[in-house]
Amino acid sequence: MYPVHPDDLKTIWECHDCGRKFFYYSDIAYHVRELRHSKVVSRDYSRKIRDAVFVRRNISLSFKIEGSRSTLDVECKYYPSTEAIVYASVSYSDKKLQRMIEGKPEMMGKVDRYLRELFRGQALKGKSS
Ligand SMILES: [Zn+2]
């Protein structure tokens, strides 16, 4: 099972391509992989989350797969008080990378942890660039 953050339960994931909605990221990850849909949008229904202080970022992560470079573009919100990361959109430069990450709890967890470290580091330095 993908470790579900309590705040995940207040987020509804929507497939940008067909508009279907899901409660869990792992479910929509499976959906976009199966139907080869590519974009995930999150809808935030938590008043608590909406009112909380957050940092919004577009982050590109580079991966090297079989000698070629692939990019994961993530648009997300980070809530320093709870260290929650809410994904607004996720897109992949190619299907190879998408297959490598989506529906793979350990890879999605890695991305999650990487982003959290990134935000934590920026918060410590007091930088916002
Ligand atoms: Zn879809």
Short description:
The protein has 129 residues and is α+β, with helices and mostly antiparallel strands.
Textual characterization of the structure:
The chain has 129 residues and is an alpha+beta fold. The protein has one domain (6-125). It has helices at residues 25-35, 47-51, 95-101, 105-125; strands at residues 11-15, 21-22, 40-44, 55-65, 68-79, 84-92. The chain has a 6-stranded antiparallel sheet. The model has no long low-confidence stretch (mean pLDDT 80). The site of zinc ion has 7 residues, from helix 1.
Descriptors:
single chain; 129 residues; alpha+beta; 6-stranded antiparallel sheet; 34% helix; binds zinc ion
**Strand ordering within the main sheet:** 2-1-3-6-5-4
Mean pLDDT: 80
Quickly give the structural class. Answer: alpha+beta
* C-alpha termini separation: 34 Å
Helix run count: 4
Give the helix/strand layout.
Blueprint lengths: L10 E5 L5 E2 L2 H11 L4 E5 L2 H5 L3 E11 L2 E12 L4 E9 L2 H7 L3 H21 L4
Antiparallel strand pairs: 1-2, 1-3, 3-6, 4-5, 5-6
Bound molecules: zinc ion.
